[in-house]
Amino acid sequence: MNVRLTRLLLALSALSISATANAEQSLQLNLTRGVTDISNKVYDLHMLVFYICLAIGVIVFGAMFWSILRHRKSRGVKPATFHDNVKVEIAWTVTPFLILFAMAIPATITLIKMDDTSDSDVSVLVTGSQWRWHYSYLDYDVEFQSIMATPREQIYGRLPQTENYLLEVDRPLVIPTGKKVRFLITSDDVIHSWWVPAFAVKKDANPGYINEAWTRVDEPGIYRGQCAELCGRDHAFMPVVVIAKEPADFEAWIRGEEERLRNAREEEQRLLSMQMSMDELMELGQQVFMAQCAACHQPNGQGIPGVFPGLAGVGVSVGDQQAHIDVVVNGARGTAMQAYRNTLSMRELAAVITYERNAWGNNTGDMVQAADIHHFIQGNQ
Amino acid sequence: MSTIVTDTHSAHDAHDHHDHHPKGIKRWLFTTNHKDIGTMYLWFSLIMFFVGGSMALMIRAELFQPGMQIVDPHFFNQMTTMHGVIMVFGAVMPAFVGLANWMIPMMIGAPDMALPRMNNWSFWILPFAFLIMLSSFFMPGGAPAFGWTFYAPLSTTYSTDSTALFVFSMHIMGMSSIMGAINVIVTIMNMRAPGMSYMKMPLFVWTWFITAFLLIAVMPVLAGAVTMVLTDKYFGTAFFDAAGGGDPVLFQHLFWFFGHPEVYIMILPSFGIVSAIIPAFARKPLFGYASMVYATAAIAGLSFLVWAHHMFTTGMPTFASLFFMYMTMLIAVPTGVKVFNWVSTMWRGSMTFETPMLFSLAFVVLFTIGGFSGIMLAITPVDYQYHDTYFVVAHFHYVLVSGAVFSIMAAAYYWLPKWSGVMYDTFLSKLHFWCSLISVNILFFPMHFVGLAGMPRRIPDYALQFADINAIVSVGGFLFGFSQLIFLAVCIKCALKKGEPAPAKPWEGAEGLEWTVPSPAPYHTFDVPPVIK
To answer: Could you tell me if A365 and A318 are in contact, meaning their C-beta atoms sit under 8 angstroms apart?
Structure first.
């Protein structure tokens, strides 16, 4: 209770401070200027329209409050009887029209620029799914998914919240500065919306369709945003983080990523013949489960009745092993359960299935190895 | 045959004894009287206002500070969804229908609505629609959690089985609205007193007349959209599923083709109310009556050409974005005319500030603020930044709460003496006004800031830089919510006839046929039509 009171007092004082001097530092009250040419144009438009509205507001409310103060019965005013004036009425129909026309011109020019995705230097396929982003560089052999890095302990108040609470991811998207980067945006399940305020880019990710957007960032830096379209339970927990690097740094980073992914694939082939112990499987499986599965099936495997099925003591987790592998690898059509064939390695798939078959008292004793997954996928093809 | 005989008999009776009607529950169940039905609509809407409001308080409690403290995110989504559905379909719309039932026959000098039995039915299916909707909380997985806009495929493939109840309940509400709208149109076209030409009708009648056409035009579109959601989820169709050749964005086009006119359905009658109250307390005729009528018609017409401004980020062609931007900006013209006319009505009037006038003045200012943020939202390139943030939440709550709801409160205070026969408690009503005015701004004004700073809407938890403003907003929310209990107290006092007896015309400057009958209005009014000079 005390914490709440302190917070409230802080909040009220913050508002009064921001009204006076250093508004920018203490509390952001206005739209960001952003870091691109377009975002600056958007900001200028925003301020232009705001000031026009403010001016109209001052005039209209000024007249109204003047009237309220002066034309009141308690001052003994006798009411006038006029109720029409064609000239005045035409004037206040035409004038707003002209003001709107003036606003529409810069808006149109900016919009046409924003929608022009031609001549891009780098293209990134951005795929939303419940509740993560997947980035794939079309010009390089690099792809990865980006999941919120804020631990549950912070959300549920067991650990103090840190600076970038809810706005941090395990693997940010990296783009080069000074280059026109085109985003191809789509979704695997429901509609999401990819938004980075500093770029003034917000585009819906529609399943089955691809939208386009672009940006050209001049300043290296870390830029944060969020999913903007309600996409289910963890809509609040799918942040976007973009790092803009100098072209040379970007080149070095992307080559490093390509090599890392190549090595990982070779490692995976090598590991196919290796057997992991139960402890190793359970440890890795728990990590994967918490990152990928716990949002729906819950950390205790209970699910949410009527929404997401439980795994503890029911369903495929304690049933047929091949059916279990099938649903994790291929997903379940017509439900929120997605296919993990392309998002997890075979080792991770094996571990998480083993974990589900042995955690929360399931204790089937079954171990699934990477080779089993490989075998299953081969058999599927 | 016997029914007809009985009916003629009771109609005859009614002439003999003005207040003859069944007593107790039967009076309310079987009533065909526009005043009884109006009263039921109004009480129903007040109850729903508190149900939807308590959901809003649940939302604000969770958002008081960062982190998840009170509810699960899934339940939070149920709260935002049901808060929206209940406030739109359960509170605001029925309140306007209640006002229409009470006032339109009295304003045009008609004895009742044209289709009284249908009137009874259009009210009585409504409580059942909401019982069905609310009962979904007890299903496995709880109530719908996909937002009141129920975008596919979140509402189809990815929803729980409460969707079926949601769809059925929406159908019933739609039927109720369509019947209500037909009744309003038929009444206005056929039952005006001799001499009451169209251009002599009070603006409340005019705005409702136009609203009723909007309702008939768009409720069937909503019915179509919910049916497609139902068949996509349960019967294997793929209207909104790309894998089957459909398109999820098609849903949004259908929804907003209904949804945007719906927004005006919830504000046009407000214009009518305020246009009755401001002249009454400024003691001066309404400025620009004819232009008010034309502006209302223009807004209604434009409402069919702007729906995609809710969808700028869905990836429309540039040309379509431009078209919808221009059309949306145009709406500012007729809306501006209305505001200018209200201010001119006050200009050089002789104003007093009774509670209905206070709410109407607050309406003009706060609705206009909502209009300004509406113009900002119309600018497509900037809308990319505002879309789906708290800036939008601030915008539509300014027009719907301090707009539509304030106008309903103004109407209630204005006509309560006529309905109940007693004056409302002046002190409580002013307390209600000032508490509401201050708290509604603490509640919604800071939302502009937090939205501009980048807080998305419909999230149960947020980044730390939004914490301070959310704490303030939550405090405002609770203050506003509890202020409404004062209104409830005022209404109950009037319903129990506690208060000074009201004269036939309690407001010095009020105009209109409703003030020519005694207060409370007799059970049957205008059995013999008045003649309008």
So the answer is: no
